[in-house]
Amino acid sequence: MTLGLALHTHAKVSGVSGVRILKVVDDDEQAELGLSAHWRARPIAGGLVAGNGEEIVLGDLRDPTVVAPGDVIRVREGSSLVSVVWRRAARTNALFTTERCNSLCLMCSQPPRDGNDDWRVAELLQTIDLIDRDEVQLGVTGGEPTLLGDGLSRVLARCGEVLPETHLHVLTNGRTFRDPAAAADWRRAGGDRTTWAVPLYADVPDIHDAVVAAPGAFDETLDGLYELARLGARVEIRVVLHAMTIPRLPQLAAYIYRRLPFVEHIALMGLEPMGLAKGNRDRLWIDPVDYQAELRSAVHHLANRGMTVSIYNLPLCVLPRSLWPFARQSISEWKNRYPDECVPCVVKDHCAGFFASAGPAWRSRAVRPLQFEELSDGLA
Amino acid sequence: MLRAIDLENTVDRRLLTNARGEYAILSRQDFALLEEGRLDGSHARYHDLLALGMIERPGRGGQGLERAALDTRKAFALEGPSLHIFVVTLRCDHACGYCQVSRAAVDASGFDMHWGDALAAIDRVFEAPAQALTVEFQGGEPALRFDLVMAIVLEIERRNAVEGRAIRFSMVSTLHHLDEDALAFCADHQIHLSTSIDGSAALHERQRPNPTKDSFARSVVSLTRARAILGHEGVAALPTLTRAAMANPRAVIDVYRDLGFGSIFLRPISPYGFALKTRRAIGYPMADFVAFYSQALDYLLDLNRQGQPMVETYASILLRHILTPFGSGYVDLRSPAGAGLGVLVYNYDGQVYPADEARMAAQTGDRRFALGSVHEPFAKLMASPAMRWLSTGAVAEALPGCGTCAFVPFCGADPVYHAAAQGDPVGDRATSEFCVKHKGLFQILFGHLAGGDPETLKTLTAWAFNRHRQEVVDAGHIAQ
What we know:
- The complex is a heterodimer.
- Chain A is an alpha/beta fold.
- Chain A has eleven helices and 17 strands.
- Chain A has two domains: about 10-85, no CATH class; about 95-375, Alpha-Beta Barrel (TIM Barrel), CATH 3.20.20.
- Chain A has helices spanning about 25-35, 120-130, 150-160, 180-190, 205-210, 215-230, 250-260, 275-280, 280-285, 290-305, 370-375; strands spanning about 10, 10-15, 20-25, 40-45, 45-50, 55-60, 70-75, 80-85, 95, 135-140, 165-170, 195-200, 235-240, 265-270, 310, 335, 355.
- In chain A, the strands form three sheets. Chain A has an eight-stranded mixed beta sheet with strand order 1-8-7-3-4-5-6-2. Chain A has a seven-stranded parallel beta sheet with strand order 9-10-11-12-13-14-15, with helices on one face. In chain A, strands 16-17 form a two-stranded antiparallel ribbon.
- In chain A, helix 3 packs parallel to helix 4 (about 180-190) and helix 7 runs parallel beside helix 10 (about 290-305).
- Chain A is globular.
- Chain B starts with a strand and ends in a 16-residue tail after the last helix.
- Chain B has two domains: about 1-75, no CATH class; about 80-480, TIM Barrel (Alpha-Beta Barrel).
- In chain B, the strands form four sheets. Chain B has an eight-stranded mixed beta sheet with strand order 8-7-6-5-4-13-14-15. A three-stranded antiparallel beta sheet of chain B has the order 1-2-3.
- In chain B, about 45% of the residues are buried.
- Chain B is globular.
- The interface of A and B includes residues 223, 257 and 260 of A.
């Protein structure tokens, strides 16, 4: 169980030159795996040793539970930071491709930063080589991953070579796919094991463009989606639910079925109160319990039409019972949390819970532990 | 191009549609604003109309998706004939008043399909490019030549081992002559059965007389036998609605409920295949059918509301046209028309027709409807004078009266009907019963969609998307 477990810790780091990507492998596994000493980090009491002559030492790990056998870590010369870039025990892992983005969404949980970060490609290629071969699904995230250009193709192609059974889930705003040649390259590199998850916040340009703070983005995303469809790519549509997207959510659902009937999944997602969202609370906040009518229309509209639809990031206590079958435990474990008041709740084990970052200002008035008695009524 | 029409069963609502089959329902006042170009960004409906592409905005994206939406709706046009009807015999032991020309006496000779013609027809089936094919057996009473039905099914399956098409079989039969062995063959080869029940026992036996004067009782016994072997869903039924049925819409529906059917297909009597004298006795103006249909639909909606689900099949077809972005698999209502392009009928005598109605028209002596011999290749049949003639009335969007009708994206062209009834495949919409029927039915259905009653919308949603009524916990209907 890695719920709430951080992805970073600090250590006394010595012997590192440049950046090293390492896989933590204990002696038993090493006997089986025979990993080159260059890539292996060996657990010792209180830390790790690595390198051909075990010249790299990560001693006095501040939180030793952060790093476990099988994990892939990153260390850098002159830094005490030890980062887990792939965690064996996690339900979901993602490759972080770039901090750059061509949109600036009002609720971005990972605010973009400019600057050349093409160096990430080489590190990602090393990371991919060290991921367990039986990995079921791997996210590819950013920033906007396609801003790596050909670098993204190389990352995806490498996944195809060394992790051919792994499903890739790429979060992209889709805008760059309007260039047919670039779209074809990424599509080819991603193959049929890749789903392209594209956000669409409204069925009209002014709302979508205002949410992503990028004029013209709506048109570019639609043309990108068209190219993806033409190329037979697997597409997911993602909608973040907040005060600007809720008013036209039902119409957006109708639009998706009408114009984008090829999409294989629609994820309707509760807001993550991180990053830019915090500063834009006044424009974004709506208590989820106050948008259930819109959510209900959208979900049933799509589900009745045979579309696969999921609700992410919302606790069951704010959802009407008819929407429970669509709710998923979607929050990555390292930032997932269940407050103390949830302890007596009888559906806690099936509930998405909360973002660790969600303070009282983001709490729905409907949150409460559910009891068996209230479940029995209304069950069909 | 936008098309508009007043919705007669609403207060002051107007329907607006585009070529892609997207629709908006507006008040007349808002429609006037839109027409005058005065419906601007501050108007409550502005975003709705913008999202539907009914308000233009310069340099907009998403035009690829719009083209794709139109292509998706018309994708069937490139697939070629998907419904192949084999008339294995014209003989039948029933003497139905509305079917004088498409039957022969049960002991007559020269009315069965020759095996050589059947083999040629199978060649034509596989020449059609469609991946999904339906092969339907008709008559006369095809069960009188079940040996031929079996031979054709086996030969098609043998050929399909190489061809790899998705093939579905169906047979239109009274069921009376299908014994347990024949039914077992149907079950083994997944031949779906469709039968006729016209209404109450008295009405059915008056309209569908058989030699022993017990056609209803026999149909009921045969239905039980067939369901025991094929399963309850293995047999569907539909009534031929004559003037006698018009007076009481509930009666025929109740007969279907008593017999355990989950659906009924309400069709008006076809104008071909019987003499003028008979027509005076059993026919009616199409407006009477529309009134009948409206009452029948209200009754069915009530039943569904009360937890007694029953589907009206034609409504489910029309609703699919209205509520989905996809083209219709229904060959009798689409544009370009299904005649020849979606359906081929292989008659017992080796002639090929573009529709069952064309075969009936030809039986009355009009030779213009035959595409040619079953021994001619598909390409030649498609280039026949009959196809050229009928194709002049095959594209609804280009027909006078249809080209400006707001229902046209959901409707279709029927050049065979117009040629048979009016002498010209283009036809005259002002006097067309086809048009009266479809305008009437679309008005009724859009009236319900605009009305917004939640229980009605649940039922219509279940029908359109082929779901059980109780599976639809919320219609998720989004008014637009």
